[in-house]
Every structure is written in structure tokens, then in C-alpha cells.
Amino acid sequence: MAGSRGVIISVMLLAMLAGAAVAVQLRASSVVADGAVASEPTPNDPPADPSASQVATSAVRSSRGEAQKTFSVTIRKPAGPPRVATNLKDLHGEAVTVACSTCHSTRSPNLQNKTSQSLDEFHSGMKFSHGTVSCLSCHNAADYDSLQLADGHRVEFTDVMTLCGQCHGPQMKDFEHGVHGGLNGYWDLSRGPQQKNNCVDCHNPHTPQFPKMQPTFKPKDRFLEQSRSEH
Amino acid sequence: MTTDNTSPQEPHDGEYLKPLLPILDQHSTRRTLLKTAGAALGLAAFGEALSPLMVIPENVSVDEFLQQHYKELTDEDKKKVFARLEAETKERFGADVTITDSKPIPGVRFAYAINVSKCNGNGKCMEACNKENNHHRGVDQSYIRVLEMTKGSMDMENGSTTYDHTVPQDDKFYLPVQCQQCDNPPCVSACPIEATWKEDDGIVVVDYNWCIGCRYCEAACPYHARRFNWELPEIPAEEVNPNQGYLSNRIRPQGAMEKCHFCLHRTREGRAPACQEACPTGARVFGDLNDPDSAINYVLKNKRVFVLKEELGTKPSFFYFFD
User: Could you say which of A62, A214, A219 has the minimum Cβ distance to residue B142?
Assistant: First the structure.
């Protein structure tokens, strides 16, 4: 009996030795050190250049105790009063556009016109679907190159968000907290600046509902597609 | 052994020839022969079972084979490993890339939220993910899957990912699903070799070189958020994103598991994740849970928020809300 036990023990010993040898071979260079690696500075993208003309910087609201938020949030601004194309070209071949006031200063405003359907000369083909507001709820009859608030105060096209915000308070509040309108750049203002859209970047003011889209990208589902290999 | 009559004489002969091992101190009976044969067979089987460990696969370099787990790499090791990976990328894909090792920002805890009222299923986030994270172009891989769901139902089994029509449809809503960066991640528990783990900022990462590709984590994830690299990704050199992180968007080896890492090579440098920047509807909100003034905390305090499959106790860091 002693002999058989010896056999078993010696076999096990041999097996363990072999296993240990393999392990040692595999992990020979194992030097464990838990040093923190200083992360190499990542080449950060330059802040996207807001192509749409001017920009405004709003003061940074909050700051998290230890981190100083030194960078600003930039909200894109519309280019200014719209220009109407005339299909004419000037001597330099540039398209001729005219300001709204070019026509509107010579004719008196008609408060009866509520939508584009009642117009017969101009703007008649324009789609309009924005609640029950009428043209002069937002456009300034005193100066068609500007807009007006509900209380009659003039507001420039570049400050369109002030106009939208007077009705769309919840959206405005979400926007101010970074939860509406999306963003580009940095979430952490102590490390870099942030760019945000304004209302009319995404919403056509005359048909503000977000447009329908066609999906352009679909991961190819391997259960539906032809097999890519012979397996 | 009662039949063993020869044993009394044995000490006589063996006095100055003591065997080294007891196995040699046996008479060659049939029993000992069988024992020895059995032992030898057992040893051979053991060696054979271990032999895959001794062979380096064809597509793996010796350095890669001997590479330690990410957590055991020293700064010096990392420098060498990253240089090797950069050289391999140059050789295989023809692109000059920089591999970095962004660390969690102390005190920051990442979370994500998606406004299902706004998401219209256009899929720009999937496309941005594909480009940012150097996904396989051949299969248009992405960490995000947008489910088209019937309004009034939360049955993800019946959600469609293959819809191809104008969106949004009136009777549908759209649910983008990616890694939920769970606080109680089943995928991490399932991994037999600790190739995946949760970092201090909440991101669950994978060491693609330590991963053995067993896909247990894929089976364990209730959100179907993990992806397997069946092939070495195909990416044209000019499309390779050169800004790469070791634990994030570097080009993955064949046979490795991967998953959304909240674009940690960007977000740990303070930048927004690629899917958020790409979203044309502004449905995506990302930020620091530990900052009481962050956008993500505004959502959690002011919106109607839910998580997916709450009953499983995975505790996601990924929220959905509607307004």
C-alpha cells in the first residue's frame, strides 16, 4: 500500500513541477509595479470655427470647487437680417440680394395677413407652420430688418434667442443647462471651450418642427447579410 | 500485498543501491507496470493540455505574447508597448498614430443620458462612433445600436435595428443602446481573466491584448453592448483616427472583445464624446455626476428618468429621459 501511495504522490509532484516550470517560463519577466503613467498630452482639436459670422460668449455659470472653469461657452449667432435673392448678378458676377426693408419700407404693413397663404405677390410659396402666431408677432412692422418681442420692443435678428425664449421657456431653461441643442467641444470648461447652437441653427422659425431624416448609416447585421468568409 | 513474498529479501540487495524515487523501488509486477504507464500517460496528457501556452500564434508577436496585463505595466513597459502598437499600426494600416493612456480625472464620475423624446433614430451617433473609434469598415461596426420601438412598448426583443425609412415614424420611438457602464457590471464578473474592469470614473474598459476572446462577457451583458472582432478591422489609411487610447479606440486585434468606453481618450481630456457631438437632435447629454451643476445632474433632478432593465440590478451609469 505504501508503495502505491508513493507512486501517486511522486506523480503529482512531477506534474506540479512541470506546471510550475511552464508558469515560470510564461511569467518570467513579471515585475509588478503600480506606477501611474503621466498621460501624454493629447493633441486636442482646435475649437471648431463657427462659420456663421459673429459669436457671443456667455459667462460661465457654475464652477466645481477645485477646478477653475476658465473657458467660455460660445453660442453661435445668426448672420443678421436675412437677404432676399433677386436672381440678378452685379458687374462682378456676384448675386444681388436685397434687404427686407427694400420692399417693406415702401408699403404699409397689413395686419390681416396671418400666414403666407393670404399673400399674392411675394412670400406666397413659403411654408408656415408655427402655432397660431402671425407674421407680425415676430417681424417688426416698424423696421423689417429687425424683429420684435411680444411687448413691442425691437430685437435684432442676431438676438433671435431672446425672441424664441419668450414663448419657449422650458426649452430655453434646458438650453441654459446644456440639455437642449447639443454641443461641441469640451464638457469640462476648465480644459477647453464649448460651442452651442442657437434656436434657428436647428429649427426653421417658420416651420420649427425638427425635419424628418433618412438614416444613412446602418451596422451590417451579420445574421442578415451574406457571410463574409467561407466558414 | 499478501502475495508479495519477495519483500523480506529486498533490504539485502538494496543496501548500497538505494533508489532515488520510491517509484523505482518496485518490483516489475504487472501492477507497478500499469501504475507507471498510467502515471506517464497522465503526465503526457498534462503536458499536452498545457502545450497551447507554449506555442505563439502566427499573428501574435513574441513581445505581444509576453506582454503583461495593463494594470501590471510600468511606465517604461507602457512606453515600449505603445511604441510597438504604433509601429504595428503603421505596418498593417499605413497610418501614423499616437497611442495615449488617459487616466481617470480624480473626482469625476461619468454618466450619460439620452432624451428619447428628441432622438429620431437618424443614426448619426453610430456613424460618428464608427469613425472615431476605428471600427471595422467592412461590417460598419459601431458601439451603438439604435432600436426602433413601437410606442407603448419597452420590449427590446421586438426593437428593430434594420429599419431603413424616413424617421421618425409616427408610431415609433427610438432607443439608442450602448454600454451602460454599469456599477454592478455582469460582464466584469463573467471575465475569467480580468481582462475587463471598471475604472474610477465609472468607465468599464477592456485590455484588448489581455483578452482571450472567450466572449463570456458578451453573453453576460443584458444590453448586448459588447462586440467581438471576428476579423482584423479593415480601415483605409486616410480614415484611421490617429488620436488613439490604449484602453479605447486603438485598432483592436482580431479575436478581442470591445465595447463603448465613453470615448475616454476624449472625455478624460475634457472633450465631449463623439456621439454627442454628432447628434443633430441634441438628444444626448454627457457629464460628471459628481458636479452638482453639471448638465447630467440637471437631467436627473428635473426630468423623468429611467434606466434599462432596472430589475436586473446592474446599476447603469446610462440614463434615458423624456420631456
Answer: A219
Could you tell me which residues come within 8 angstroms of residue A151 by beta carbon, excluding any fewer than 6 positions away?
none
> Percentage of chain A with pLDDT > 90?
40
Cell numbers at B211, concatenated: 483578452
Single-letter amino acid code for the residue at B68: Q
Specify which of A95-109, A164-178, B9-23 reaches the highest per-range mean pLDDT.
A164-178
Query: What pLDDT does residue A58 have?
Result: 45
The answer to whether B300 contacts chain A (CB < 8 Å) is no
Specify whether domain B110-322 bears CATH 2.40.50.90: no
Please name the residues between 201 and 220 in chain A that touch chain B, using a CB distance below 8 Å. 202, 210, 212-220
Q: How many A/B residue pairs have CB atoms within 8 Å? A: 202
Between chains, do A37 and B72 touch, taking CB under 8 Å as contact? no
Extract the residue ranges of chain B whose pLDDT is less than 70.
Answer: 1-27
What residues of chain B lie within 8 A of the CB of A180, using their CB? 282
Sketch the domain layout of chain B as residue ranges: 110-322
Interface contact B48, partner A, CB < 8 A: no
CB-CB: which of A37, A217, A222 is closest to B126?
A: A217
Identity of the residue in A63, A66, A212 whose CB atom sits nearest the CB atom of B166: A212
**How far is it, in rounded angstroms, from Cα A86 to Cα A97?**
6
Burial of B248 (0-12, 13-18, 19+ CB in 10 A): buried
pLDDT digits (tens, 9 = 90+) for A60-101: 444 444 556 789 999 999 988 998 888 888 889 888 999 999
Prior bond to A193 cis, omega within 30?
A: no
What beta strand segments (E) does chain A contain?
55-58, 73-76, 83-89, 95-99, 147-148, 154-155, 184-185, 194-196
Q: Residues of B numbered 54-73 whose beta carbons fall under 8 angstroms of chain A's beta carbons: which are they?
A: 54, 66, 68, 71-72
- Each residue of A40-60: pLDDT tens digit? 344 444 444 444 444 444 444
Taking alpha carbons only, the member of B166, B98, B108 closest to residue B134 is B98
